[in-house]
Amino acid sequence: MAGDWSRYWRSPGRRLEAMHAHFERHAYHRHSHETYSFGVTDDGAQAFTCRGAGHTSTAGMVMAFNPEDPHDGKAADAFGFTYRMVHIGPELVADVLTQSAGRRAAGRRAAGRRAGLPLFAEPVVHDPVLAAGLRRLHAALLGGAPALLGDELLDAVVLAAVRRAAIGGPGQRRATAAPAASAIARRVAERLHDDYRTDLTADALAAVSGSSRFAVYRAFRAMYGMAPSDYQRQVRLRAARRLLAGGAPIAEAASETGFADQSHLTRWFVRSYGITPGTYRRGSP
């Protein structure tokens, strides 16, 4: 892809990742992450859909995605966009908030803060202070800064994001789904997780949910923001990521997670994450 480039870093022991990229032609397929994902647009404009609406992030704006927020993304014009992204595991966010609560209140509410992770109402935020903090953290991670400095910058970014952009404690982003539909979607999701290697049919999902194929599709889209087929592919990709992070060869990761072959895994890995499986496996720029 002419003009497109990316750099990537992955922590070997924690769910903490960073990416710096410029895309003109690459378009992200709809996907989500298990992590909180915070990004800053450096140049240009990125257009994406998230939570049922279209958004555009231009230079200086912050993107804030909750875990499991489905989104896509592409350049808003022919000039492309440059951005940096940091993915932070929910457990790391919980640890920072717990430590912060302990410092302020001698641990009185530490357990409660761990249970109540923050949510971000808007996927695009104009906040120069938060953007500057994210740039400092991102530069430290990709630049090989000392571990202590990286931890300090991570703490500062999490606290700044929660204080400046979060809407508070626990909530249900998809609370509008009817209880019956939510139950259908959860049963289908459990089956997709349990049998992600299997080439499941729509009839099989309807049978496990006790409803029609149409009801399954409608309930699943309402609850998870994507079709069951996209969700199954995402579960497979996440399983492949875990194998690759452990050093598995790409071909082995593909065969173990239900992809037809290495090229099939590579194609969807790039469409969903903007990097190749080999880049992810190496875990450094």
From TrEMBL:
<dbReference type="InterPro" id="IPR018060">
    <property type="entry name" value="HTH_AraC"/>
</dbReference>
<keyword id="KW-0010">Activator</keyword>
<dbReference type="GO" id="GO:0043565">
    <property type="term" value="F:sequence-specific DNA binding"/>
</dbReference>
<keyword id="KW-0238">DNA-binding</keyword>
<keyword id="KW-0804">Transcription</keyword>
<protein>
    <submittedName>
        <fullName>AraC-like DNA-binding protein</fullName>
    </submittedName>
</protein>
<dbReference type="InterPro" id="IPR037923">
    <property type="entry name" value="HTH-like"/>
</dbReference>
<dbReference type="GO" id="GO:0003700">
    <property type="term" value="F:DNA-binding transcription factor activity"/>
</dbReference>
<keyword id="KW-0805">Transcription regulation</keyword>
<dbReference type="InterPro" id="IPR050204">
    <property type="entry name" value="AraC_XylS_family_regulators"/>
</dbReference>
<dbReference type="InterPro" id="IPR018062">
    <property type="entry name" value="HTH_AraC-typ_CS"/>
</dbReference>
<dbReference type="InterPro" id="IPR009057">
    <property type="entry name" value="Homeodomain-like_sf"/>
</dbReference>
<dbReference type="InterPro" id="IPR003313">
    <property type="entry name" value="AraC-bd"/>
</dbReference>
<dbReference type="Pfam" id="PF12833">
    <property type="entry name" value="HTH_18"/>
</dbReference>
<dbReference type="Pfam" id="PF02311">
    <property type="entry name" value="AraC_binding"/>
</dbReference>
<feature type="domain" description="HTH araC/xylS-type">
    <location>
        <begin position="186"/>
        <end position="283"/>
    </location>
</feature>
